Amino acid sequence: MKSDMERVVLITDFGVNDLYVGQLKGVLCGASMEIQIIDFFHDIPPFNIESAAWLISRCQHYFPPKSHWICVVDPGVGTPREALLVKLGERVFIGPDNGILGWALSQEDAQVHRIGTHWKPASATFHGRDLFAPVLVDWLNYRDLNRIGPAIQVAQCQPMPALLIKKPHGAQVKITHIDRFGNVVTALKYIDICWASAALVVNGISITKWVKTFADLRVGEVGMLVGGFGTVEIVANKAHAASMLSCKCGDWVDFLEKSVDAKNGD
Protein backbone atom coordinates (compact mmCIF):
# COMPACT_ATOMS: atom_id res chain seq x y z
CA MET A 1 0.00 0.00 0.00
CA LYS A 2 1.35 3.40 -0.97
CA SER A 3 2.54 5.44 2.00
CA ASP A 4 1.22 8.67 0.41
CA MET A 5 -2.28 7.29 -0.18
CA GLU A 6 -5.15 9.44 1.03
CA ARG A 7 -6.95 7.87 3.99
CA VAL A 8 -10.38 8.55 5.42
CA VAL A 9 -10.85 7.80 9.12
CA LEU A 10 -14.40 7.31 10.39
CA ILE A 11 -15.54 7.74 13.99
CA THR A 12 -19.29 7.57 14.68
CA ASP A 13 -21.95 6.36 17.08
CA PHE A 14 -23.68 4.44 14.25
CA GLY A 15 -22.70 0.97 15.49
CA VAL A 16 -21.69 -1.85 13.16
CA ASN A 17 -25.00 -3.74 12.95
CA ASP A 18 -26.88 -1.15 10.91
CA LEU A 19 -26.68 0.24 7.38
CA TYR A 20 -25.45 3.77 8.10
CA VAL A 21 -21.70 3.17 7.88
CA GLY A 22 -22.08 1.34 4.57
CA GLN A 23 -24.01 4.23 3.01
CA LEU A 24 -21.42 6.74 4.18
CA LYS A 25 -18.66 4.63 2.62
CA GLY A 26 -20.61 4.39 -0.62
CA VAL A 27 -20.60 8.18 -0.96
CA LEU A 28 -16.87 8.31 -0.23
CA CYS A 29 -16.25 6.07 -3.24
CA GLY A 30 -17.01 9.15 -5.34
CA ALA A 31 -13.49 10.46 -4.72
CA SER A 32 -11.48 10.75 -7.93
CA MET A 33 -8.41 9.03 -6.46
CA GLU A 34 -7.85 5.75 -4.65
CA ILE A 35 -8.51 6.11 -0.93
CA GLN A 36 -8.26 3.81 2.06
CA ILE A 37 -11.21 3.97 4.44
CA ILE A 38 -10.37 3.17 8.07
CA ASP A 39 -13.17 2.29 10.48
CA PHE A 40 -11.58 3.72 13.59
CA PHE A 41 -14.59 3.29 15.88
CA HIS A 42 -18.35 3.10 15.36
CA ASP A 43 -19.37 2.09 18.88
CA ILE A 44 -19.23 5.45 20.59
CA PRO A 45 -22.13 5.35 23.09
CA PRO A 46 -25.09 7.04 21.36
CA PHE A 47 -24.94 10.86 21.55
CA ASN A 48 -21.73 10.84 23.65
CA ILE A 49 -19.86 13.77 22.10
CA GLU A 50 -17.33 13.88 24.96
CA SER A 51 -16.16 10.31 24.39
CA ALA A 52 -15.70 10.84 20.65
CA ALA A 53 -13.87 14.14 21.09
CA TRP A 54 -11.55 12.63 23.67
CA LEU A 55 -10.78 9.53 21.60
CA ILE A 56 -9.89 11.72 18.63
CA SER A 57 -7.54 13.77 20.80
CA ARG A 58 -5.78 10.68 22.17
CA CYS A 59 -5.58 8.63 18.96
CA GLN A 60 -5.27 10.95 15.95
CA HIS A 61 -1.45 10.90 16.05
CA TYR A 62 -1.36 7.17 15.25
CA PHE A 63 -2.55 7.85 11.69
CA PRO A 64 -0.44 8.96 8.70
CA PRO A 65 -0.32 12.66 7.72
CA LYS A 66 -2.85 12.38 4.87
CA SER A 67 -5.60 10.99 7.08
CA HIS A 68 -8.89 12.87 6.80
CA TRP A 69 -11.46 12.44 9.55
CA ILE A 70 -15.24 12.29 9.35
CA CYS A 71 -16.54 12.63 12.91
CA VAL A 72 -20.23 11.95 13.46
CA VAL A 73 -21.79 12.01 16.90
CA ASP A 74 -24.52 14.49 16.17
CA PRO A 75 -27.60 14.61 18.40
CA GLY A 76 -28.35 18.09 16.98
CA VAL A 77 -28.46 16.92 13.36
CA GLY A 78 -30.89 18.97 11.29
CA THR A 79 -31.01 21.85 13.77
CA PRO A 80 -29.33 25.24 13.19
CA ARG A 81 -26.04 23.90 14.61
CA GLU A 82 -23.18 24.59 12.20
CA ALA A 83 -21.04 22.06 10.33
CA LEU A 84 -17.28 22.53 10.00
CA LEU A 85 -14.20 21.59 8.04
CA VAL A 86 -10.98 22.08 10.02
CA LYS A 87 -7.76 21.88 8.02
CA LEU A 88 -4.52 20.94 9.77
CA GLY A 89 -1.62 20.74 7.35
CA GLU A 90 -2.37 18.00 4.83
CA ARG A 91 -5.44 16.64 6.61
CA VAL A 92 -8.96 17.79 7.35
CA PHE A 93 -11.48 17.04 10.09
CA ILE A 94 -15.17 17.30 9.20
CA GLY A 95 -18.19 17.13 11.50
CA PRO A 96 -20.78 19.09 13.44
CA ASP A 97 -19.85 22.12 15.51
CA ASN A 98 -20.77 20.56 18.83
CA GLY A 99 -17.36 20.02 20.46
CA ILE A 100 -16.47 16.77 18.68
CA LEU A 101 -13.82 18.65 16.66
CA GLY A 102 -12.43 20.35 19.78
CA TRP A 103 -8.95 18.84 19.50
CA ALA A 104 -8.51 19.95 15.88
CA LEU A 105 -9.80 23.42 16.69
CA SER A 106 -7.28 23.77 19.53
CA GLN A 107 -4.27 23.37 17.23
CA GLU A 108 -2.29 26.48 16.34
CA ASP A 109 -2.40 25.85 12.59
CA ALA A 110 -6.16 25.20 12.43
CA GLN A 111 -7.90 26.71 9.40
CA VAL A 112 -11.64 26.61 9.98
CA HIS A 113 -14.37 26.81 7.35
CA ARG A 114 -18.08 26.69 8.01
CA ILE A 115 -19.76 24.32 5.56
CA GLY A 116 -21.82 26.73 3.49
CA THR A 117 -25.56 26.84 2.98
CA HIS A 118 -25.08 25.97 -0.70
CA TRP A 119 -24.56 22.40 0.50
CA LYS A 120 -28.13 21.14 0.76
CA PRO A 121 -28.26 17.67 2.34
CA ALA A 122 -31.05 15.46 1.06
CA SER A 123 -31.93 14.38 4.59
CA ALA A 124 -32.28 16.42 7.77
CA THR A 125 -31.33 13.40 9.87
CA PHE A 126 -28.33 11.84 8.10
CA HIS A 127 -25.67 14.49 7.58
CA GLY A 128 -22.91 11.88 7.74
CA ARG A 129 -24.01 10.53 4.38
CA ASP A 130 -25.61 13.63 2.87
CA LEU A 131 -23.27 16.42 4.01
CA PHE A 132 -19.98 15.39 5.63
CA ALA A 133 -19.08 12.64 3.15
CA PRO A 134 -19.90 14.73 0.04
CA VAL A 135 -17.92 17.67 1.45
CA LEU A 136 -14.88 15.45 1.99
CA VAL A 137 -15.19 14.00 -1.52
CA ASP A 138 -15.30 17.55 -2.91
CA TRP A 139 -12.22 18.49 -0.90
CA LEU A 140 -10.33 15.42 -2.09
CA ASN A 141 -11.27 16.10 -5.72
CA TYR A 142 -10.66 19.88 -5.88
CA ARG A 143 -8.61 20.97 -2.80
CA ASP A 144 -10.44 24.27 -2.79
CA LEU A 145 -11.59 25.56 0.59
CA ASN A 146 -13.66 28.26 -1.10
CA ARG A 147 -15.94 25.53 -2.42
CA ILE A 148 -16.61 24.38 1.13
CA GLY A 149 -17.74 27.60 2.74
CA PRO A 150 -16.58 30.78 4.47
CA ALA A 151 -13.54 30.92 6.72
CA ILE A 152 -14.36 31.61 10.37
CA GLN A 153 -12.46 32.13 13.60
CA VAL A 154 -11.82 29.31 16.04
CA ALA A 155 -13.44 31.42 18.77
CA GLN A 156 -16.75 31.13 16.91
CA CYS A 157 -16.76 27.32 17.34
CA GLN A 158 -17.64 24.95 20.15
CA PRO A 159 -14.54 23.94 22.17
CA MET A 160 -13.55 20.56 23.51
CA PRO A 161 -16.06 19.47 26.17
CA ALA A 162 -14.94 19.78 29.78
CA LEU A 163 -13.73 16.42 31.03
CA LEU A 164 -12.08 17.43 34.30
CA ILE A 165 -13.23 19.89 36.95
CA LYS A 166 -10.64 20.78 39.56
CA LYS A 167 -11.70 20.83 43.22
CA PRO A 168 -9.86 22.06 46.35
CA HIS A 169 -8.77 18.53 47.30
CA GLY A 170 -8.97 16.71 43.99
CA ALA A 171 -11.13 16.79 40.90
CA GLN A 172 -14.14 15.39 39.14
CA VAL A 173 -13.22 13.53 35.99
CA LYS A 174 -15.25 11.94 33.19
CA ILE A 175 -15.22 8.31 32.20
CA THR A 176 -14.38 8.66 28.53
CA HIS A 177 -14.37 5.05 27.39
CA ILE A 178 -15.13 1.54 28.60
CA ASP A 179 -13.58 -1.22 26.53
CA ARG A 180 -14.91 -4.74 25.97
CA PHE A 181 -12.85 -6.03 28.89
CA GLY A 182 -14.61 -3.62 31.26
CA ASN A 183 -11.62 -1.35 31.80
CA VAL A 184 -12.87 2.08 32.87
CA VAL A 185 -10.85 4.72 31.03
CA THR A 186 -10.83 8.24 32.46
CA ALA A 187 -9.60 11.58 31.17
CA LEU A 188 -7.25 11.93 34.14
CA LYS A 189 -3.67 12.23 32.87
CA TYR A 190 -0.72 10.71 34.67
CA ILE A 191 0.93 14.12 35.05
CA ASP A 192 -2.15 15.58 36.76
CA ILE A 193 -2.10 13.38 39.83
CA CYS A 194 -0.24 12.98 43.10
CA TRP A 195 0.43 9.26 43.38
CA ALA A 196 1.14 9.23 47.10
CA SER A 197 -2.44 9.94 48.14
CA ALA A 198 -4.54 9.42 45.02
CA ALA A 199 -7.86 7.60 45.01
CA LEU A 200 -10.83 7.40 42.68
CA VAL A 201 -14.32 7.15 44.11
CA VAL A 202 -16.93 5.49 41.91
CA ASN A 203 -20.50 5.20 43.20
CA GLY A 204 -19.27 5.47 46.77
CA ILE A 205 -16.50 2.88 46.39
CA SER A 206 -12.96 4.18 46.90
CA ILE A 207 -10.33 2.61 44.65
CA THR A 208 -6.88 3.12 46.16
CA LYS A 209 -4.65 0.35 44.86
CA TRP A 210 -2.19 1.44 42.17
CA VAL A 211 -0.52 -1.19 39.97
CA LYS A 212 1.57 -1.34 36.81
CA THR A 213 -0.08 -4.33 35.12
CA PHE A 214 -3.36 -6.25 35.32
CA ALA A 215 -1.51 -9.28 36.70
CA ASP A 216 -0.38 -7.25 39.71
CA LEU A 217 -3.95 -7.62 40.98
CA ARG A 218 -5.53 -10.77 42.32
CA VAL A 219 -8.13 -12.31 39.99
CA GLY A 220 -11.29 -10.24 40.43
CA GLU A 221 -9.52 -7.50 42.37
CA VAL A 222 -10.07 -3.87 41.34
CA GLY A 223 -7.26 -1.33 41.07
CA MET A 224 -5.89 1.54 39.02
CA LEU A 225 -3.12 1.85 36.47
CA VAL A 226 -1.96 4.12 33.66
CA GLY A 227 -3.34 2.53 30.49
CA GLY A 228 -2.56 2.70 26.82
CA PHE A 229 -4.12 6.14 26.46
CA GLY A 230 -1.70 7.57 29.03
CA THR A 231 -4.54 8.20 31.45
CA VAL A 232 -5.80 6.58 34.63
CA GLU A 233 -7.92 3.46 34.18
CA ILE A 234 -9.89 1.49 36.74
CA VAL A 235 -9.34 -2.18 35.99
CA ALA A 236 -9.86 -5.67 37.38
CA ASN A 237 -7.77 -8.75 36.75
CA LYS A 238 -9.78 -11.08 34.48
CA ALA A 239 -13.01 -9.34 35.47
CA HIS A 240 -15.25 -6.54 34.20
CA ALA A 241 -14.49 -3.51 36.39
CA ALA A 242 -17.27 -1.36 34.92
CA SER A 243 -19.93 -3.96 35.83
CA MET A 244 -18.45 -4.45 39.29
CA LEU A 245 -18.68 -0.69 39.92
CA SER A 246 -22.00 -0.11 38.06
CA CYS A 247 -20.54 2.74 36.02
CA LYS A 248 -20.80 3.73 32.37
CA CYS A 249 -19.11 5.95 29.81
CA GLY A 250 -20.00 9.59 30.50
CA ASP A 251 -20.25 9.22 34.28
CA TRP A 252 -18.28 11.55 36.53
CA VAL A 253 -15.98 10.03 39.14
CA ASP A 254 -14.19 11.74 42.00
CA PHE A 255 -10.41 11.94 42.21
CA LEU A 256 -9.28 12.85 45.72
CA GLU A 257 -7.06 12.05 48.63
CA LYS A 258 -7.74 8.65 50.15
CA SER A 259 -11.28 8.70 51.43
CA VAL A 260 -12.13 7.53 54.91
CA ASP A 261 -15.86 7.88 54.31
CA ALA A 262 -16.30 5.77 51.20
CA LYS A 263 -16.25 1.97 51.22
CA ASN A 264 -12.74 0.79 50.37
CA GLY A 265 -12.54 -1.26 47.17
CA ASP A 266 -8.96 -2.53 47.38
Write a brief structural summary:
The protein is α+β, with helices and mostly antiparallel strands.
Low-confidence stretches: 259-263
Average pLDDT taken over every residue: 93
> Which outline best applies?
elongated
The total number of structural domains is: 2
What integer value in Å does the Rg equal? Answer: 20 Å
CATH A-level architecture of the largest domain = 3-Layer(aba) Sandwich
End-to-end Cα distance, whole Å, is 48 Å
Look at the structure and give the CATH class of the largest domain: Alpha Beta
CATH fold title of the largest domain? Rossmann fold
In N-to-C order, the SSE pattern is EHEHEEEHEHHEEEEEEEEHEE
Beta-strand percentage range: 25-35%
Largest sheet: 9 strands, mixed
Q: How does the helix and strand content classify structurally?
A: alpha+beta
- How much helicity do the residues have? 10-25%
Work out the number of β strands. Answer: 16
